[in-house]
Amino acid sequence: MYHLGPVDWVESQSIYHALALLNREGLIICYPTTPYVCLGLHDDLEYEIDQFYCRNVGIPLLRRETGGGVVYLDSRQIFFQLVIRQNNPLLPLRRQNFYEKFLEPAISLYRKLGLAAELKFPADIVGGGKKYSGNGSGDIGRCTAYVGNILLDFDFVTMSRVLKVPDEDYRRNLYRAMRANILTLADCLPCPVEYSLLAEGLLTGFTKQLGNLFPRSVDDELCATARQVGRRLTSREWLEMPGRKSALRKVKITEGLYLQAQERAVQNCPAVLVREGVAEAMTADL
Amino acid sequence: MKQIWRLLDTGELPAADNMALERVILTARSCNLIPNTLHFLQFSPHCALVGYHQAVELEIEEDYCREHGIDINRRISGGGSIYMDEGQLGWEIFALKNTPGIPKRLDDMYRLMCESVVNGLSRMGIDARYRPLNDIEVGGRKISGTGGTEMGNALLYHGTLLTDFNVDTMIACLKLPLKKLEDKQIRSFKERVTCLKEVLGYVPPLPDIKKAMARGFAEVLNVELMPGALTGEEETLMAGELPKFRSAEWIRLPRVLQESNLTVADYKAPGGLIRVSLLIDHLRQRIKSAFITGDFFAYPERSILDLEAALKNSSSRPDDVRETVRRFFAGNDVQIPGVVPDDFYQALSLAIAVQSSNENNGGNNASR
Amino acid sequence: MQGEKNKEWNIPRGLLFDSSDCWLKITEETVVGLTDYGQSNIGDIIYLDFVPAGTVVRRGDRCGSIESGKWVGSLLAPISGIIVETNSEAKADPHKVNTDPFGDGWLYRMEPADRKEITHLMNLDAYKAWIQERISGKAKDAEIL
Questions:
Q1: How many beta carbons lie within 10 A of that of residue B363, not counting itself?
Q2: d(CA B8, CA B94)
Q3: How far apart are the C-alpha atoms of A53 and C80, rounded to whole Å?
Q4: What is the pTM for the complete model shown?
C-alpha cells in the first residue's frame, strides 16, 4: 500500500502504470499537486482537447493506459488506484464485475459522510440521481489497474474550457449539464472534509476488501520506472495517437448521459442531452 | 550581465502568415517557451492591414486591392490601417511585461521602443525623432508607425519602417481623409510620410538596415541579440493558427459597430484658408484621422503634421475638440500669422457638424 | 454612488476589486466594470469589445478587448462563470467607461461559477493599498500593461 498524499501531476498517473509494468500489486492513495488534463486510452487529442487553450493557461496533458474519457484533474480530488495481477484469483474473468469490490470502500465512505451512494453499472458512484465519481480500468502489462477518485470539489468551468467544442453555446450547455448532474463533497457537505479523513476511510475499506495492507514507500526501481513511463505518457507521439471521434461532437457527462451537438440547421437548439437513450433538447438561451 | 534576446528574421511571408506568427510568438512568450525576441518581418505579396478593431470595408479599397493582388488582413494590435509592400520592413518586440528595463507605464514603454528605432535610424545617418504617442518622424514626416498588444504576462510592440515607399499605392488602397481626385490634396498628403530613400537619397541594402536597427534595439534596451529560428513548438502552434488567420471570420468580421465618413470643411481665417478633411466615426464620436491644408503659413511647418497626429483618434465632441486644440497650442511653440487656435477649432467644428452621407467616398463639404 | 475619496480616485463602497483594476458588484449576479484608476491608466478608450454573451470563462480568461493609443489590451475575467450580458452602450461609446466607470460605463454581467473565488478579490482597503503600491512604484507585477 502506497499512501503517497500529494504527488507531482505526472506521478499521479505514472506510479500505478509503473507498478503494473513491474508486475507488482499495490494500492495507491494520492492526489496531484497541480492540475492537468488526462485523456483515456481511446480518446483522440485533436477531437477532444482545445490544445491552444491548455497551452495558453499552462494546463499540461497526459494520456493514460486505462479507459474512460477525458478528465480534468487537480488537487481537489483524491485518487485510489489498485494494481492487481491478472492471474490473481480475486480478479473475475469479466473485469467490470470487479468494480463492485473496488468501489465498495469509496461507497462506504460516502455513506459514512451521510450521503446516499451506490454503484451505477459499470463504474460510476451515484447518489440521488447524480454522479459523485467516474472510475475506470485497463490492462497494463500483466496486471490490471483500477483507478477511482473522490471529488472534494470540481472546477466545472475549466473542464468545459479545455474541451474542444463546436461553439460557445455547446460549451455553456456542457457546463450547465455537468453542474446539474455531477456532485462534489463541497456541494453536499456543510464543511470541507480533510484529505486525511478520506484517505483513512478508504484504507479501512480496502483493508476489509483485500485483507491486510502493508505500507510501502516508492523504491528506486519503482521511481525510475515511473519516471520513464511518465515521459512516455506525456510524449507528443503518445498524446497524438488517433482515437475515437464522432461526426458531431459528443461529450459523456455521466454513465448513460451525453451532450450531443446538433447540426446547425436546428434552430436555437445547439445540443441535445441524451439520457439513457432519450433526447432532451437544450436551447441556446442563457 | 546583459539579457540575451533572440533575433528572429522570418524574411518575406504573406500577410496571413505574418499575422499568425505574431499570435504564435506572443503565445510562446507568454508560456515561457521562448526568450524575449526582436523579430524582423517583410510582406510578400504586398498587403493592406487593418487594426484589430477596424472594419475592412470602412478602411480598405477592396476592389483596388483585389485588382492589384494586394492581400488584406487584420493585426492583433491596435491602430489604423497600413499598406506594406515587399520592400518595407516590419520590426517587432516580444517580451515579458516584467522584463527589467521595460517600463510599466504604456507611454514610457512606447517611448523606449521608439527611441530604439530612433537609435537604429541614427546609425544610418538619419535624424529621427519620437513623436508621441506612437510615431517616429523625420522632419515632422512619419517614417515609422507603431502599436501593440498583450497576452498574459507578455507584450508585443511593433512598427513599420518605410524604406522605398509607394505612396500612390497606399493612397489608392486605403481609405484616407482626402479626396483622391484632388492632386493638391494628394501632393500635400505625400508630405506627411517619408522613407529611407527620400531621406538618404538611396535605400541601403536590407541586411544593413536590419543590422542598424538591431544595434539600435540592443543599445537602448541594453540586451544582447542572438540569431535564432522559430522553435518546434512555435511551428506546431503556427500549424494550428494559420488557417484562422486566413479565414474571412478573422479578416472581415469585427463586432464593434463603427462608421467612417469623410467630411471636408473650408474655413476662412484672417491669415488664410484652412481646409480640414476628416474621417469621422459619428457613431462613436471619434475623429479617426485629420488632414489639414490651406494657404496659411505655419512655423515650424511640421506643426500642422503634429496637430494632425494629436487629433488622430481623438474625441469629436465639441468640448473635447476645443481641449485637444488648446492643449496642442499650449504645448507647442507654433506661429501662424493671422490664424489663432480658435480658427482651427472652428474649422474642425464645421467639418464635424456636417452630416455624413459617405456613399461614394465623396463625403460632404462645407465652407465658411 | 456614495464613496470614499482616495486622492483623486473615486472608489465607491460595496464593491470588490481585482488586481487588473476591475470592480465587481456581487449580488445574485455579478456586475463587472473598470475602476476610475483603471480607466485613467488605460487612457482615452477608442474601442471596446467583448466575447459574446453566453461564453463560459475561467478566472483570468480574456473576455474582451480594450483599445487606447494603438494598444489593444485584454479584459480578463476576475472570476469564473458565464458572461450573461455585455454593455452594448459602452461598446458603442467607450467614452462612458472613461467618464462614468462605476455607472453607465459598466462592462458586463456574469453568473459566477464558484462563490469561493471571491476570496481572490480585494476589499476597498486592500484595493486602495494596491493602488498606492503601484503609484509609489513598489509593486512587483506589471500594473499598467
A1: 22
A2: 11
A3: 15
A4: 0.88
| Contacting subunits of B (3+ beta carbon pairs below 8 A) | A, C
Does residue A282 belong to any structural domain of this protein? no
Cβ contact, residue pair C70, B106, below 8 Å: no
Nearest CB partner across the interface for A168, out of C52, C80, C113: C52
User: Is the pLDDT score of C5 beyond 70?
Assistant: no
Any chain A CB within 8 A of the CB of B137? Answer: no
Q: Sort residue B241 into left (φ over 0), alpha (ψ -120 to 50) or beta.
A: alpha
pLDDT single digits (tens) C61-75: 999 999 998 999 999
AA letter at C21? D
Cell numbers standing for residue A80: 485510489
At residue C141, the pLDDT reads 44
Preceding peptide of C101 cis, ω within 30°: no
For residue A186, the enclosing domain spans 2-244
pLDDT(B66) > 90: yes
User: What pLDDT is recorded for position A264?
Assistant: 66
Domain hosting B231: range is: 3-252
Contact residues on chain B for A52, CB-CB shorter than 8 A? 27, 237, 240-241
CA dihedral of residues C103, C109, C111, C116 (deg, nearest 10): -50
| Interval A196-216: pLDDT, tens | 999 999 999 999 988 888 999
Which residue carries 463504474 as its cell? Answer: A123
Chain A residue numbers touching C54 (CB-CB < 8 A)? 168-169, 172, 284, 286
Residue, of B348 and B105, whose pLDDT is higher = B348
B243 vs B17: CA distance, rounded Å: 9
CA distance, residue B272 to nearest chain C CA (Å)? 32
Above pLDDT 70, what percent of chain C?
88
Q: What is the pLDDT of residues C91-123, one digit of tens each?
A: 999 999 999 999 999 999 999 999 889 999 999
Residue A188 belongs to domain with CATH number: 3.30.930.10
Q: What cell was used for B160?
A: 513599420
Integer Cα distance of C70 and B146 in angstroms: 8
Q: Do B27 and A56 touch (CB under 8 A)?
A: yes
Q: Number of folded domains in chain A?
A: 1
* Mean pLDDT, chain B, integer: 90
Regarding predicted confidence, which is higher, B158 or B104? B158
Look at residue C79 and tell me if it is in a domain. Answer: yes
Which of the listed residues B235, B252, B269 is the one where a domain comes to its end? B252
Does the beta-carbon distance from A168 to C80 stay under 8 Å?
no
Written as nine digits, the cell of A72 is 480534468
* Sign for the pseudo-dihedral over CA of B53, B57, B61, B67: positive
Structural domain boundaries enclosing C74: 15-133
Same domain? For B224 and B362 the reply is no
**Average pLDDT for residues A98-113, to the nearest whole number?**
93
Interface ipTM: 0.86
SS3 state of residue A102? helix
Number of separate domains in chain C: 1
A286 touches chain C (CB under 8 A): yes
A101 is written with which cell numbers? Answer: 469490490
Q: Give CA–CA dist B31/B152, Å, rounded.
A: 8
